[in-house]
Amino acid sequence: MIYLITGGSGFIGSHLVERLLRNGHSVINVDNFDDFYSYQIKIKNTLESIDKISDFEFSDKKADIQYLASLSHSDQYSLYYQDIRDKEGLENIFRNHSIDMVIHLAALAGVRPSIERPLEYEEVNVRGTMNLWELCRDFNIKKFICASSSSVYGNNEKVPFAETDNVDNPISPYAATKKCGEILGHAYHHLYHIDMIQLRFFTVYGPRQRPDLAIHKFTKLISEGVEIPFYGDGTTARDYTYIDDIIDGITKSVLYLENNSNVYEILNLGENQVITLKEMVATIEKTLNMTAFRKILPMQPGDVTKTNADITKAKALIGYKPDTNFQNGIKKFVEWFLRKRQ
């Protein structure tokens, strides 16, 4: 099978690329190496995902990415430095490859930044996604997996969150763009018979996690003896999901799409294990054997108080079975973090 993966040099994407290549498939990685965080991290992700660990000598962004693309190009893997907002550039990629399925992970992420830059979030997360659907229509590609988010649930009072819950009240532009993607996706499924699964990811963590996300950021700051930003009273809670379990959910969704037709489904991918902010920090402290210095701050606009995934549907439909508890997941992450810091 030939899979086009958008955002294949990011946190989740690079792990998915690695899994699919290991399973003998071909991958086309489309990534714009956005400066949301260092492009150098994405280059390292890419090298790890294609098993080309090396001491990459960085110079200029464009030259570095072009060199990476030439270094990594093979019959089984191709890398394109491409923004999904550029439909013409995407079209050239679709024209040059026989694509069996699109797995769309690329997005502008983050609740708080979306409040500051809502129009840019709309351009990438809505228009960019529509460009992909338009090209799937034009090139007769009938299988599509799309990354949604637990953010669509907003401050849902019913827990755990189920796919049938009302999600008409997002509390950030980021969440609104993800809900919009689900609605537009259904329109493309209905009109053009594109089989589709929308995956609502619940707070993914693990090796290669973005450095701006809480677990990575807190681990770094605690290990350096620097105070951490601690929002609220510590009772906010998240359904943290380890990266290996997310990749398992994506690959099982891929198999389901390959073996079924007339599909439009929304699935929660979480652990169904809720961890408070206080518990998360305490677990990192225990794993590092260090004490965190907390800077108490007010709750931030757009932040939800709790997420909790009902994964009954994913278990029944695709055989999703997360098996990494939070303590073991943090242990694996900290081991990776300390190893990479050396």
Automatic annotation (TrEMBL):
<dbReference type="InterPro" id="IPR001509">
    <property type="entry name" value="Epimerase_deHydtase"/>
</dbReference>
<dbReference type="Pfam" id="PF01370">
    <property type="entry name" value="Epimerase"/>
</dbReference>
<feature type="domain" description="NAD-dependent epimerase/dehydratase">
    <location>
        <begin position="4"/>
        <end position="270"/>
    </location>
</feature>
<protein>
    <submittedName>
        <fullName>Epimerase</fullName>
    </submittedName>
</protein>
<dbReference type="InterPro" id="IPR036291">
    <property type="entry name" value="NAD(P)-bd_dom_sf"/>
</dbReference>
<keyword id="KW-0520">NAD</keyword>
